[in-house]
Design goal:
The protein is mostly helical. 68% of the residues lie in helices and 0% in strands.
Length: 344
């Protein structure tokens, strides 16, 4: 998957906030595509006429704000998801390192898949709330907001309803990881050069390609998961789901029987179109935030460019650089006092 590159010149909190803000920014601007995708997966009437007709139908029935339903909870979910994912990933990677600190590509991708499952487990109720908020009609809402959605689902359907379909996250991680591995293990053949020589543009293309392949392979599991999250006998039209089922396996059967096997990939067009602008905005916003932090930390001369500050060792961490600055300042102050005393 495309991820922002770690820079040791940022503090841990700066890196986390840059990634978080970039995620919120890119999610917000691509929210209309996400809404269309999830409505297509659930099977609401808005998407019966195809991808392009979904936009005017949503606008006529729910207005402009209908394209940003569930965006707040999606952004809120991003921060705990990222924190759990990074922490889990680092611990798993540390366990699989050899004596030289090397980790094979396959184990790194597997660690990413397991970290994703752990992060999804912690934040899954927010994902259920997001699906319910998007599937409902915002002009006749059952849920007013994320807190209302969580409390109503828990109160009327029980705690397990907040984890309905979670097993599909675990199952979907397998084809997702295989897709990532298939792409990353063949990049040197694609570009005819070793990965160590890839440019930023090549890495961006690699990330988008891996995301496209991995998400396509795991998409049927996500489609069934969204239907399970949305369906409820206590909601109008059973939550807007286009098939009725009694469980995960029955959902697969009913979808294939009534809609055809290709309907498991309904909404894939919106998902695929979203990949490039989402990751493009993610990288661009992250780099802009990083420039501000690097300027504040003293590594570059301006927040508008990457021109390095003269005389600054770029290999030093931010706290080490601060200590060096403090030491030089105290030394210069001391020498100034000494020369002042000698004069008198």
């Amino acid at each position: 998957m495309a991820t922002v590159k770690k820079d040791n010149r940022l503090t841990r909190s700066q890196g986390f906030m840059c990634a978080g803000f970039a995620g919120v920014f890119s999610k917000t601007l691509t929210s209309p595509l996400e809404v269309v995708k999830i409505k297509s997966q659930v099977g609401t009437f808005h998407c019966k006429r195809g991808f392009w007709q979904s936009f005017p139908l949503i606008y006529r029935n729910e207005g402009f704000r209908g394209f940003w339903k569930g965006n707040l909870v999606s952004c809120l979910r991003l921060f705990p998801y990222t924190a759990v994912h990074l922490t889990t990933y680092k611990k798993i990677i540390h366990l699989h390192m050899d004596e030289l600190g090397f980790v094979s590509q396959w184990r790194a991708i597997l660690a990413g898949g397991l970290a994703g499952v752990a992060a999804a487990l912690v934040t899954y109720p927010l994902e259920v709330a997001e699906t319910r908020l998007i599937a409902q009609n915002c002009r006749q809402p059952t849920y007013i907001g994320v807190v209302c959605a969580l409390s109503k689902i828990h109160g009327s359907e029980g705690l397990l309803a907040l984890y309905r379909g979670f097993s599909l996250t675990v199952l979907g991680a397998v084809p997702f990881s295989l897709g990532c591995y298939a792409v990353y293990s063949n990049l040197d053949k694609l570009w005819q050069e070793p990965p160590s020589r890839f440019t930023s543009l090549q890495n961006f293309i690699n990330g988008c390609l891996a995301a496209g392949v991995a998400q396509t392979l795991s998409y049927p599991f996500e489609t069934v998961k969204r239907k399970m999250q949305a369906q409820s006998a206590r909601l109008p039209h059973f939550g807007g789901v286009d098939v009725h089922f009694s469980g995960m396996i029955d959902c697969f059967i009913q979808v294939v029987r009534n809609k055809g096997i290709l309907s498991l990939w309904t909404g894939l067009a919106a998902n695929t179109i979203k990949i490039v602008p989402y990751f493009g905005l993610l990288f661009t916003c992250f780099e802009m935030c990083k420039q501000l932090c690097l300027y504040r930390n003293g590594y570059i001369v301006s927040p508008l460019s990457y021109k390095l500050a003269p005389g600054v060792d770029q290999s030093l961490g931010p706290y080490e650089l601060e200590e060096v600055k403090r030491y030089l300042k105290n030394r210069n102050f001391g020498s100034g006092e000494s020369s002042f005393g000698n004069r008198w």
